[in-house]
Amino acid sequence: MAPRTTLPQSSAWGHPQSASLVGTTTRGTTNPNRLRRMDRWIAAVHGPALRRCADAPVAVDLGYGAAPWTAVELQTRLRTADPRTRVVGIEIEPARVAAAKPYEREGLTFVHGGFEVPVPGQVDLIRAANVLRQYDEGEVAQVWRRLCGRLAPGGLLVEGTCDEIGRRHVWVALGPEGPRTVTFATRLGSLERPSDLAERLPKALIHRNVPGEPVHAFLRDFDRAWAAAAPYASLGARQRWIRTARELAADWPLVDPRGRWRQGEITVTWDALAPNSP
Predict the structure, then answer these.
(1) What distance in Å separates the CA atoms of residue 172 and residue 201, rounded to the nearest whole number?
(2) Is residue 19 part of a domain?
(3) Of 117, 121, 125, 107, whose CA–CA distance to 45 is shortest?
(4) Burial of 213 (0-12, 13-18, 19+ CB in 10 A)
(5) What 3-state DSSP class applies to 59?
(6) Global pTM?
(7) Quick one: what percent of the chain has pLDDT higher than 70?
(8) Which residue ranges does the record annotate as region Disordered (predicted)?
(9) Cα 99 to Cα 246: distance, rounded to the nearest angstrom
(10) Do β-strands 108-112 and 123-129 pair in parallel, antiparallel, or remain unpaired?
């Protein structure tokens, strides 16, 4: 299928859409605190870049869904990194924007739009969570290029997927030049084995979890390291995860500070997991 460049004349909800908008309506599923793991990672890892912005940093919550909670929470969490941060929630479904308007406040606004990101100038952060799952794998690269083209120098795009209550996440971090890293994050107390995160792989990777593909090999080695770290389970799931990360780092290019391991996160370079050519 050719990548989408404009919306169809009507969305899945039956509302007419402007042909200038780029994208399609998502299911809109959202829950309070669903994206907390992603938000905290962004604030910790991208916080220094936000603070270096000469003007107030601008962050976009793209496709926030049927309720505005994720945008409200993103502003709160990013302001722990830089109190100047302004957040713009963008939704392609007009009714969702109208429903979010009462939640606007200083530094938080909601606008109607899609992948074109209708915000003046460049932005310092775009978070697109659970947005691309409905698209074809072949469409992802074009969406990434479009969104990365809206980033300011030093900006960041975070695109990924999580479960309904935010226990398991996988996301890709991209700069203006393209993808950089992949982060696996989980609530450790709910994890049976690391490959359980496979169902939350972003669209660019989820269909590549098959023998012969790098992400499949990574998850296989992740499970093996987790099994080898079983004796550490008596010290708690966090200690087992940290030991697993140390074992995994011997063969895979993990790039996150070890302090992030304590949060139930592991980040690996994109190049190590990038899909093989078709």
Answers:
(1) 9
(2) no
(3) 125
(4) middle
(5) strand
(6) 0.89
(7) 90
(8) 1-30
(9) 46
(10) unpaired
Would the pLDDT of 3 be above 90?
no
* Banded model confidence at residue 210, pLDDT cuts 50, 70, 90: very high
- Torsion, Cα of 230, 236, 239, 243 (10° steps): 10
Sign for the CA dihedral angle at 120, 121, 127, 129 comes to positive
Judged by DSSP in three states, 184 sits in: strand
Q: 95: domain CATH number?
A: 3.40.50.150
Q: How long is the chain?
A: 278
Nearest to 64 by CA among 143, 131, 163: 131
Q: Is residue 71 part of a domain?
A: yes
> Whole domain around residue 119: which residue ranges?
36-203+253-273
31-78 tens-digit pLDDT: 778 999 999 999 999 999 999 999 999 999 999 998 999 999 999 999
Retrieve residue 122's tokens: 């460049």
Task: List, in order, residues 6 or more apart from 257 with CB less than 8 Å away.
Answer: none
Report the number of distinct structural domains present in the chain.
1
Would 211 be classed as within a structural domain? no
59 within a domain of the structure (yes/no): yes
Query: What does the block give as tokens for 107?
Result: 């530094």
